[in-house]
């Protein structure tokens, strides 16, 4: 009898040890699908805020001065004038969803952005990291990080060349 109780106890302990808790990391989730759709919308210039909570905050290359969802879409629309084409490359896209120790749900993605400047056709590829916090299926916080120096330097060069051409015409 004691052996049976001991065996049952060991079996129960083993079963309890094998029980998995909630998923804390995945590469497949509804939240990841939302971000893939958001990126597809960006690539197709379909700007909408339905994926964002009304109180969402977006930070691009900063930790200060967040933008609302509407301001974020306006930011992307204004940038359209600078590029003849732009979007995220299909290759080497990585997505993950994590649930933090505090129970926050975040989706991280690593992408390559490619664009051509409207002024001179120069093509540039820039690695981008985006991270999104979700609450009840909506984006409540977005952070984006990339190095814009290649674009800034090229735009400064274009502006300097235009200024020089303008000066030569007035002389």
Automatic annotation (TrEMBL):
<protein>
    <submittedName>
        <fullName>Nuclear transport factor 2 family protein</fullName>
    </submittedName>
</protein>
<dbReference type="InterPro" id="IPR032710">
    <property type="entry name" value="NTF2-like_dom_sf"/>
</dbReference>
């Amino acid at each position: 009898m004691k052996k049976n109780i001991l065996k049952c106890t060991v079996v129960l302990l083993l079963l309890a040890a094998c029980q998995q808790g909630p998923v804390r990391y995945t590469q497949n989730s509804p939240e990841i699908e939302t971000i893939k759709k958001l990126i597809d919308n960006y690539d197709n210039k379909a700007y909408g805020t339905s994926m964002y909570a009304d109180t969402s905050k977006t930070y691009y290359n900063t930790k200060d001065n967040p933008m609302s969802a509407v301001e974020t879409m306006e930011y992307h629309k204004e940038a359209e004038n600078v590029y003849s084409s732009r979007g995220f490359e299909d290759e080497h896209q990585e997505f993950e969803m994590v649930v933090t120790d505090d129970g926050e749900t975040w989706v991280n993605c690593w992408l390559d952005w490619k664009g051509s400047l409207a002024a001179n056709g120069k093509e540039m590829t820039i690695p981008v990291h985006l991270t999104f916090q979700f609450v009840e299926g909506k984006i409540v916080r977005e952070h984006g990080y990339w190095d814009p120096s290649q674009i800034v330097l090229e735009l400064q060069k274009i502006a300097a060349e235009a200024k020089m051409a303008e000066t030569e015409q007035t002389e």
